[in-house]
Structures are given as structure tokens and as C-alpha cells.
């Protein structure tokens, strides 16, 4: 639905420019997490503040503990096992696979935990890698470039006449702009995941005929899965082979990625991409809705095969057994963003540490699975992690990869819990608070009505209007989340992404609706009785005369002119 890439900077390859902001990209489907970065930072600051307070209350640490130095970190199979097993035990993550390489060697591959159906995960367990697939699609395009069949800077329509849109500017979109996602296509103009899904690459391209561009081609970056649907269809048409066959024969087979394949939809993935979402510190098993995936996020692979892929990426296109799948020049092209950007061709620049080169990375996210691949060019280390929790609510693959990067760079591996494990308890407290306040407001509605008596009805309505805000937030929650993420999605997808947030907003909306309804009932009753309460005093009669305290209004008898005189 949306996207993310962990710790992305904006500095160029081989540089370490300080002061650049972090950006997250990648995913399923992937720019979901970009919008949640402020939430994560806020949650992190809250945890840090609570931690400092706890330290202050506990007093100074014993000298013996303070003097202990951590053992030197090392990237070894045993240290990787200890860290990943510790991560699963601490966070409750059901399962993950990991691949770590250095140079042309595999440091470690393995599986941990279990799949959704209870199968133990190993280095050969097939897993969906979502948007990590984009780098593989880009490589297939670059192979055609090297064969002289495609020019990166020629318009796509020259190779794929069927690619038409309801925007004349689409005729100027180049192959390069598809791969670096500067084509001008965007979710704001064509909300792919909120629309009925295609069944073939040809159909995925055809469904864009009525879409418009969000920007002039080449002027703005926007993460959009259909860029890679079009790129994959281009590979299919130019090569004359089905995309999945082309990828298998020319990318996977030469690298001995024998357990890897490209599928058309999530229903073709292992266990139909079934996995987990996090809620209130627990993982909840969920099925995945059907998404079209070919080219953008449809590769299914294993930890063993991911290790072979990482070696080729860190070795200029040459696999562990010396077979070349693409030239070193093409590899550099795929890893190099356009001037002023940080997204290349299925890879993004990350944040450099310790004066080294910035890493290259990309995340991949489904609603029930997430993945990440990271290259550390100066150390020639490759890291790939796939876990069976969904985007945003899970975030486990990025957390594991950060710990493995710590080991690779000589630091003790730190377990970074998914931010929802901190945020969800706070949301649970807000949920209970909202329900409590709603109940109190409903019980006190009669008193509110008496206090509002004697005032125009519009003023009472105006004072109740703020209670409609939580209801509006629930109704438009998908749009609000899409605005933050700069991606379009449905309400059902938001329930996957952050269940505790949906429950909190729904509780606030329910509480507010109860208050509005209770107040409305009290005012309606007063109107139907032909009178409205007047302040905190006795009620008013239907003719507007004041009543005596606790009794009826006095009766005035007209005895006629001069009567009683």
C-alpha cells in the first residue's frame, strides 16, 4: 500500500555529507513509513524521557557495572544467531530469514521462528521480498540496455506503444525515469492499491489509460509501483519472453538463485502471503488481500538465494561462482541516484556512519510481510532480512538489519523494538480515556441541556460541534493516513498498518457520537414538550410564563372590564 526505506539520506554515492535529513522508502509496495517518521521520533523521545527519569529515580549505577565494557562486536554466524534469536525473544516476532555476506563469501544464512502455518523457517524457506523485487526488475532492464535493445533515455512508448495515459506528457516518459521513479506518475493521480487489481502485466499497463500525471516527467520523485509494472512489461515485450521466465533465465539462473521466482499476485505467494500484524505488544495472524505484484513487488526467494544476490550487487555484477549477469558499469548506474536525489534504480542511499560510504538499501513491505536489503560498499558487506510482520505495525526487518549493521561496523548489536510496541500502550490508554469521557458526557447530557436552556439552538449546536471531529477523523482516516504517507490506500488497509491507531480513533468517534446523541435527545424532548429548560431554575411553561418554584404557573382570570372594581 505505501513505502519505506530505512535511514535514507540525500548524500551521493561515496560521500558523507553531514546535516542531511533521514528518509524512509521502499515497500510493497513501499512510501508508507515516510509519513510515520514524526510519530516514531515522538515515540522515541517519550521513551528516552521516561528512561532518563527512571535512571534519575534509581540513582547512580554501581561502579562495577559502570566500568564494564562491552565485548568487541564481530560479524560471525554465532553473533548473528545470538542477536536474531534475542530479537525474536524480546519482540515476539514469529519468524524471519537472514542473509549476510562479505565480499564473495556468505557469512551466514538462516531462518528463525516459524511461518504463519507453523512451519519452521530455514535458509531455504520461500519468502516474499515485496519491493526488493524492484532492483531485480531494474537489472533485467539493464541487461537489455547492454544488449543494445533498450536506451535508458528514450521514451518508453518507443518500445511499448500500448503504454498510453490520459496525459500527453506521458509520451515523454523515458525508461530511466521509470526506474528512478521520476516519471511524474504518483498515487495522488492514480491510487493503484485503492483500485481493482490487474491480473497480468499487460492489464496493469492498460488500466492506466485513463490516468493523468502528477508532475512533468523528470521533475519530481514519487514512489509509485506502476513505474515498475510498466518496466516489467517493457522487458516482456522487448525480449519476447514472459517477464517471470526472463527473470528466471537471465537473472536468477546465472546467479544460482534456483529457489527464486516472480509471481503475478499475493495469492501466488507461499501461504497466500499470510502473516502477522502487531497490536498492543502482540502479533495477530492475518490473511493478505489480493494485490497484483509482478515487476514491482512479486519476487519470492530464500535467504540462501538472497545471499547470492547480495554478492553480485557488491561485486560489480559478478556472482559468487564468477559468472557475470551485468557489467560493473551497469551496476554503478543502478546504484547511482540522479543529481539531487537519493533514489536510484531499486536502491536508495542511506545514512553514512563513522566517515564511511553511505549504504545502499531498499525495503519491501506487504500488509503482513516486510523485508530489507542493505549494502555497505566500503566493507563489501550485504545484509538481507525478511520477517512475517506487516508494514509500519511490524517494522522488524529494518530493526534486525540495523543490529546486523552494528555488528558489521564493530558495534554491539542493539535491539530496536518496533515503534508500535511503545506507541500502542499509549494509544490503549487514550482509547480507555476516550470511552470514559464519552460515557461521562452521555450521563451528564441532561445537566448540559438545562445549562444550555434559554439560548438559541444554534449556540448549543456550535458548542457540540467539536465532538464531531473524532467522527470525521474515523470517516476520513484512510485519506488522512494517505496524506501523511503520500500514498493512497483503503480503510481496510489502514487496519492492517496500525490496528491500535484505528481502535483508538474508532473509540474516540464512538464516544463523541454518544455525547452528540445524548445531547440531541435531551434538546429534542424539550422541543417536543413545547418548552425548553431555562438555566438551572424551574422549567418554562408553553406560553413562556415563569413557573412558581416547585408548582404550576398562576392562572389569571379575565373577568371583563370593571369586574371586581
* Strand count: 11
Shape: globular
Through-space gap between termini = 89 Å
How big is the Rg? 30 Å
Overall pLDDT confidence = 84
Order of H and E elements: HHHEEEHHHHHEEEEHHEEEEHHHHHHHH
Range of helix content:
25-40%
Biggest sheet layout: 6 strands, antiparallel
**Structural class of the helices, strands and pairings?**
alpha+beta
Order of strands, main sheet, comes to 2-1-11-10-9-8
* Proportion of residues in extended strands: 5-15%
- Extract low-pLDDT stretches: 1-71, 532-565
Description:
The protein is an alpha+beta fold. Helices cover 39% and strands 10% of the residues. The chain has 18 helices and eleven strands. The strands form three sheets. A six-stranded antiparallel β-sheet has the order 2-1-11-10-9-8, sandwiched between helices. α1 (33-58) packs across α16 (477-485), α4 packs parallel to α7 (226-239) and α17 crosses α18 (499-528). The longest helix is centred in the C-terminal third of the chain and has 30 residues, at 499-528. It starts with 32 loop residues before the first helix and ends in a 37-residue tail after the last helix.
Amino acid at each position: 500500500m505505501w513505502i519505506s526505506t530505512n535511514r535514507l539520506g540525500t548524500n551521493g554515492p561515496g560521500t558523507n555529507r553531514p546535516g542531511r535529513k533521514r528518509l524512509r522508502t521502499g515497500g510493497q509496495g513501499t512510501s508508507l513509513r515516510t509519513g510515520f517518521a514524526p510519530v516514531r521520533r515522538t515515540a522515541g523521545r517519550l521513551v528516552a524521557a521516561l528512561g532518563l527519569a527512571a535512571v534519575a529515580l534509581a540513582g547512580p549505577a554501581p561502579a562495577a557495572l559502570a566500568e564494564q565494557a562491552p565485548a568487541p562486536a564481530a560479524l560471525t554466524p554465532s553473533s548473528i544467531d545470538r542477536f536474531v534469536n534475542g530479537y525474536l525473544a524480546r519482540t515476539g516476532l514469529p519468524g524471519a530469514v537472514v542473509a549476510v555476506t562479505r565480499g564473495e563469501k556468505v557469512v551466514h544464512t538462516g531462518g528463525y521462528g516459524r511461518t504463519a502455518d507453523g512451519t519452521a523457517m530455514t535458509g531455504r524457506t520461500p519468502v516474499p521480498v515485496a519491493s526488493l523485487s524492484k532492483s531485480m526488475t531494474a537489472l533485467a532492464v539493464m541487461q537489455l540496455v547492454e544488449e543494445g535493445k533498450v536506451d535508458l533515455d528514450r521514451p518508453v512508448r518507443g518500445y511499448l506503444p500500448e503504454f498510453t495515459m490520459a496525459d500527453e506528457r506521458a509520451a515523454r516518459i523515458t525508461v530511466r525515469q521509470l526506474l528512478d521513479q521520476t516519471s511524474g506518475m504518483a498515487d495522488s493521480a492514480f491510487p493503484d492499491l485503492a483500485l481493482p487489481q490487474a491480473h497480468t502485466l499487460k492489464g496493469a499497463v492498460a488500466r492506466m489509460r485513463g490516468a493523468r500525471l502528477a508532475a512533468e516527467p523528470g521533475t519530481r520523485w514519487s514512489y509509485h509501483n506502476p513505474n515498475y509494472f510498466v518496466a516489467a512489461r517493457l522487458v516482456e515485450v522487448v525480449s519476447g519472453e514472459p517477464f517471470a521466465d526472463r527473470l528466471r533465465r537471465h537473472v536468477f539462473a546465472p546467479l544460482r538463485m534456483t529457489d527464486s521466482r516472480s509471481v503475478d499476485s499475493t495469492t501466488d505467494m507461499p501461504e497466500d502471503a499470510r502473516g502477522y500484524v502487531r497490536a498492543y505488544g502482540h502479533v495477530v495472524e492475518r490473511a493478505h488481500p489480493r494485490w497484483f505484484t509482478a515487476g514491482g513487488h512479486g519476487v519470492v526467494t530464500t535467504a540462501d538465494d538472497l545471499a547470492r544476490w547480495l554478492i553480485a550487487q557488491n561485486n560489480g555484477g559478478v556472482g559468487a561462482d564468477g559468472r557475470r549477469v551485468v557489467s560493473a558499469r551497469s551496476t554503478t548506474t543502478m546504484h547511482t541516484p540522479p543529481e539531487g536525489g537519493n533514489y536510484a534504480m531499486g536502491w536508495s542511499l542511506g545514512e553514512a556512519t563513522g566517515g564511511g560510504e553511505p549504504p545502499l538499501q531498499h525495503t519491501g513491505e506487504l500488509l503482513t510481510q516486510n523485508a530489507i536489503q542493505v549494502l555497505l560498499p566500503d566493507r563489501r558487506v550485504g545484509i538481507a532480512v525478511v520477517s512475517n510482520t506487516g508494514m509500519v505495525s511490524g517494522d522488524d526487518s529494518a530493526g534486525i538489519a540495523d543490529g546486523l549493521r552494528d555488528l558489521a561496523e564493530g558495534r554491539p548489536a542493539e535491539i530496536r523494538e518496533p515503534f508500535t510496541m511503545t506507541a500502542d500502550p499509549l494509544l490503549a490508554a487514550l482509547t480507555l480515556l476516550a470511552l470514559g469521557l464519552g460515557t461521562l458526557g452521555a450521563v451528564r447530557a441532561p445537566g448540559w441541556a438545562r445549562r444550555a436552556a434559554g439560548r438559541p439552538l444554534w449556540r448549543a449546536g456550535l458548542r457540540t460541534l467539536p465532538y464531531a471531529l473524532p467522527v470525521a477523523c474515523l470517516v476520513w482516516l484512510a485519506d488522512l493516513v494517505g496524506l501523511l504517507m503520500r500514498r493512497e490506500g483503503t480503510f481496510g488497509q489502514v487496519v492492517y498498518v496500525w490496528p491500535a491507531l484505528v481502535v483508538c480513533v474508532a473509540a474516540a468517534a464512538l464516544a463523541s457520537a454518544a455525547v452528540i446523541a445524548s445531547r440531541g435527545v435531551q434538546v429534542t424532548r424539550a422541543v417536543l414538550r413545547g418548552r425548553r429548560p431555562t438555566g438551572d431554575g424551574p422549567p418554562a411553561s408553553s406560553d413562556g410564563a415563569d413557573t412558581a418554584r416547585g408548582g404550576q404557573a398562576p392562572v389569571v382570570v379575565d373577568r371583563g372590564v370593571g369586574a371586581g372594581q
